[in-house]
Structures are given as C-alpha cells and as structure tokens.
Design a protein that fits this description.
The structure is a homodimer of 233-residue chains. Chain A folds into two domains: 11-77, Orthogonal Bundle (Arc Repressor Mutant, subunit A); 82-232, Up-down Bundle (Four Helix Bundle (Hemerythrin (Met), subunit A)), CATH 1.20.120.530. Chain A has eleven helices and two strands; from the N terminus they run αααββαααααααα. In chain A, α6 packs across α8 and α10 (189-205) runs antiparallel to α11. Chain A has a two-stranded antiparallel sheet. With 233 residues, chain A is mainly α. In chain A, a hairpin with a 3-residue loop joins β1 and β2. The relative contact order of chain A is 0.11. Chains A and B meet through α1, α3, α5, α6 and α9 of A and α1, α3, α5, α6 and α9 of B. Chain A binds a DNA duplex (30 and 30 nucleotides) through residues 10-12, 36-38, 46-50, 52, 55, 66-72.
Chain lengths: 233, 233
DNA sequence: CCACCGGAGTGGTCCGACCACTATGGGTCG
DNA sequence: CGACCCATAGTGGTCGGACCACTCCGGTGG
C-alpha cells in the first residue's frame, strides 16, 4: 500500500497539482507558511530543483509568495493576487486578439461604471474628481496616463466587486499604453477623452446607472474603433 | 558599454521579463522555436537551473510550450493558450470571491449569449440543440455536466469573441462542479436548469438578442443567488 | 525505394555545494 | 533592568555538472 507510480506528466507538474490540491482542500490556508523547499521535495520524493520549479510556477500565478531567508507562504488569494497574470495576457495579445480584449473591457467597464453610479460614496466620488482634475491640469502624457488609470481604478473599486476591478486593472495597462501612442497620431484625442471622462463623472455624480453605462461604453468603444481601424490599415 | 548590473529582483525573474520582452517586441513569433535551455542560460549569463525556472513559469502561463526531446516553442498566443490559467484562479477562489467571479460570469455570459443570438449560424444552432437534447436525455450527472458545459461553450463560440469564450470556459469549470453538488441538495434544480436552457435556446432560435441576454443572466443569476444563500448559512 | 536503427541533440531530473538574506536569541552596553 | 547589537542557524536563491528519457534525422541494409 505504498501509493506509487501515478507518474503522469512531469514530476514538477505533479508537484504543482499537489500543492494546488492542498490549498483547494483547505489543508493550506491563505497566509500560512509552507514547509521548506527541502522538506516538500523530500515529502513528494522529488529533487529540490523540481520542487523549486513547481514553487516558481505557483509564484507567478500569484498563489504562493517566496520570501528570501524566511520561507514560502500562501498569498491572501485575493482577486488582485490571482489576476495579476491577467496583465501579462493583455500585454502579449496582439492584432485581433487585442480588439477582443478591448471588447471584453468595454462590457465589464460599462457594467462596473453603472454599478458604481448606484453605489458610490461621497468619499469615493471625491477621489474620482481629484484624478479627473489632475488629469486636466497637466499635459505631461505620463502624468495624464497615471491619473487616467487611477480614475478608472477608483470607479471599478466603487462598483464593489474586487474581482472585476482586478480584471479591469489587467485589461488596462496595455490598452492605455496604446492610447498614448494614439495621442501622438491623432490630434484632438486628448480633448475627446476629456469630454468622455466628464460625461462619466456627470453620470456618477447624478447616480444615474444607465447614463454611466452608456458613457463608459462609448469611452472604451472609442479606443476600440480606433484600434479596429488601425488593424485594417 | 557592457550593460551590466541591472540586478533587480531574482535572476529568474529577470529571465522571465527578458523572454516576455522578446515576444512582446516581436523578436519571437508565435509557434517559433527558442534556443535551447543551455543556450538561453549562457546568453543571459545565468545557470540552466534558473533559466529552467523561468521557462517553467512561462509554460504555466501558456506562453511557452516545452516538447521533450524537441525544443521549446512559443505557443500560438491564442486566447485559449493564455487564459488557461484563468481556470486555476476560479478553482482557488472561495467564499465571497466566488460570488464575484459568478457575477463577472453573469455579465459576460449574458452579453455573449446576446451576441450569439444575433450572429449564430444554422450549423452552430444545430450543435447547441444537440447538446440540449443530449442533456435532457440522460440523468447521469457526469454526462449532464459535460453537455451543459458544451452547450454554453457552443454559444460562447457563436458570439465570435474567442477571448470572451476562453474566459467563460475558465469561469465555468469550478462553477459547474458546484452546481452538481447543488443538485444533490435541492430537488428541482435539474428541472429548473432544463427550463432555463430551453429559454436560452428559444431566444437563440428566434434571433432575439435581448431575450437571450435576459435568459442567460437569469440562468447564471440563479446559481449566483443560491451561492449567496449558501454563504450566509 | 522503403523500413529500420543508431546517434546526436534536446528537455527532464537529480545531486551537492555555496551564496544571500532573515529571524532569533543571547550577550553586552547604557 | 531594559534596549540594543551581533553571531548564528535556517531559509530561499544560484550554480555547475551529471545522467536519464525522448525526439528527430540521416545512414544503412534489405
């Protein structure tokens, strides 16, 4: 009864599944510290090298966190931890795939903005306004970009769904870099963006979900259309 | 001009960024074969062990694919490749996070179903009907589950957005397992699911996007509500 | 011409050593 | 007595080399 020889795939893959299972079954709680690499390797009967590969894999997935000199820990398993990789996906997508990604973003962003309009608090609204004002007060592209991102991040947070907010975060980084490049080519893009942001803010302040949904959809759709046109060229 | 000492983070992390950059900048095309592990390690001045960790990390992200005895290749970078990890996220999410995930699925699934209603071809509709019929013809939970998944997969595919379809695929595996468990407890769940599926199919056949959106939202919302109730208990 | 087979090359695994960092506890100084 | 400092044990990080398992291709013999 020695439970040998499952032997499916690589030993590293097996180790990954093993640790995932430990977490899924609750044998490992969020924040908890794991045994040492050497222990884990011995326990599964594999070498430390292979175990390290497994740990590294789960680290990039945002499931584990290795602290040099201290130990390996399970992350909080919050949406932000796990969906960080989502940004990588967005960064590596190109062509038609990028348009699809933007379409997804349009759907989620418009819904999130609509939810935010219904739920946003005064404090959160003030934060949104702060970034809106800062965005309009400068013409340094880098700074505008930062406040633009923060603007949408605040709104997503106000929607009350952390998972959705984390996904939107990932869907934005690449998108926004593209928009900067866009500003280079198309004059008037900044002014249009400013109007769109103002419309979104108006809808939020008025607590009007439908107007917020429409404004957000138009905002993202604008970029989407431009990207579609670029691909045809 | 020897370009030394960036030295940020671990060498493995640097290697990961390096390869990601190669792909992002187009120096590596989808499907292309990479240099050998030994070459890559030498090129970046790191050990093979560290390079292997980097490769393993990008492998689990669906960016690279290692073929034993042959070489390392860049994947097609299709939505399905990159979003496979999305399922892991869903599997490891629990409690409130799971409800949020389901909320995201409701939004995407309803939109996808609406899009499908407008675009679905006769062939695709036939495939949907096939799974609907098969689902109703058996009472083996496993088989029902399989056809249920396929039912929604066909619809997502008909929506014409591969990225969205891949995300929904990841959002389903965990969800559906939960529903099976649900069937154990709540009588009538199967019958209700059957009605909901029929409503979705009706909307698709009628090419009625709004009806499709509503039916799909209700379908997912049903599970969502049940899960919310479970969490309160 | 084809089937077979061998070797070269590749990823997969393992080992053992050492480095870099952290945390802990005991000793020291104020 | 208390706060500080530092030696040290333990942990993850890196390295190099050895060997195994598999794939692929070209030569060889039928």
């Amino acid at each position: 009864m020695d439970e040998e020889a499952p032997q499916k795939g690589t030993v590293t893959q097996r180790a990954i599944e093993e640790i995932k299972a430990m977490i899924a079954e609750g044998r490992l709680e969020p924040g908890q510290r794991l045994p040492t690499e050497r222990d884990l390797a011995a326990r599964l009967g594999i070498s430390r090298s292979s175990m390290r590969e497994a740990i590294r894999a789960l680290t990039v997935l945002g499931v584990l966190e290795a602290r040099h000199g201290s130990g390996i820990y399970v992350t909080a398993l919050e949406a932000g931890d796990l969906l960080e990789t989502f940004g990588v996906v967005a960064d590596l997508s190109r062509g038609p795939r990028l348009v699809e990604l933007l379409e997804v973003r349009r759907i989620l962003e418009s819904t999130a903005t609509a939810l935010a309009a219904a739920r946003i608090t005064e404090d959160q609204l003030a934060a949104v306004e702060k970034h809106l004002a800062a965005m309009n007060a400068t013409d340094d592209p880098e700074e505008i970009l930062a406040h633009d991102l923060a603007f949408h991040r605040e709104i997503a947070a106000a929607a009350g769904n952390e998972t959705m907010a984390a996904m939107l975060e990932g869907l934005s980084s690449r998108t926004f870099r593209a928009r900067v490049w866009r500003g280079y080519q198309e004059e008037g893009a900044f002014a249009r963006t400013r109007r769109e942001h103002a419309a979104i803010h108006r809808a939020l302040a008025a607590r009007d979900p439908e107007a917020a949904r429409t404004a957000a959809a138009a905002h993202v759709g604008e970029v989407e259309e431009w990207l579609r046109a670029q691909l045809r060229a």
